[in-house]
Design goal:
mainly beta, 7-stranded antiparallel β-sheet
Length: 92
């Protein structure tokens, strides 16, 4: 193995929609790590809108394009709060 991530695990054109409120966020890039979608925001990137993550019971549909150019859709994802880093967002 060469140490590089598979193109299928690298996502771009990421869009996250709260299935209950319709609130949307376009964080840009994400990665699939250990079965979760992980978004690490760059220093200047905008955080998600307040209403996107307001309810802990919300579910999300995440759409993106992977590194191989394939459209990907992940419905009914849940947000996992990551207390150690306010710039990292994890969805399972």
């Amino acid at each position: 193995m060469n140490g590089h991530a598979s193109p299928a695990t690298q996502l771009h054109d990421v869009r996250i929609v709260n299935e209950q409120t319709g609130a949307a966020w376009h964080p840009g890039r994400a990665a699939i790590e250990g079965g979760a979608i992980v978004i690490r925001l760059a220093a200047r990137a905008a955080p998600p809108p307040d209403d996107l993550l307001a309810r802990r019971a919300s579910t999300f549909t995440i759409t993106a394009v992977d590194g191989g150019g394939r459209s990907r859709r992940f419905p009914h994802a849940t947000y996992v709060p990551e207390k150690s880093d306010e710039r990292t967002f994890i969805f399972r």
